[in-house]
Write a structure and sequence with these properties.
The chain is mostly helical. The protein is built from three helices and two strands; from the N terminus they run E-E-H-H-H. It has a domain of 67 residues. The longest helix is centred in the middle third of the chain and has 18 residues.
């Protein structure tokens, strides 16, 4: 499918943002614990040279080992952190039907 196509509402475009290096490494870490394999996966996702990605993977592994970091936060656009909050709202309706006399 091409990037632009025509619909009955006019032309439409899809914006495709490649992942950041941190996001690619985070995804690779979820797949495997082997640092070499993480670097290969992240390099394939990013289309970057393997040696550049290996250095970043090792750096992030050292930081995580020092801080005991198990959780990571991925920053969204403009550095804002993304959070998902799921709430269930219960709507109670009172039965206010009037009874007619018998």
């Amino acid at each position: 499918m091409s990037e632009d196509w025509n619909t009955k509402y006019g032309p439409r475009r899809v914006r495709r943002d490649p992942p950041t290096l941190d996001e690619a490494i985070f995804a690779a870490a979820g797949i495997t614990e082997d640092l070499e394999a993480q670097a290969e996966i992240a390099a394939a996702l990013m289309g970057m040279p393997l040696d550049v990605v290996q250095a970043e993977v090792k750096k992030q592994n050292r930081v995580a080992a020092r801080t005991g970091g198990v959780t990571r936060v991925i920053a969204g656009e403009q550095g804002a952190q993304r959070a998902v909050v799921v709430e269930r709202r219960v709507v109670r309706r009172l039965a206010t039907t009037k009874r007619t006399g018998t």
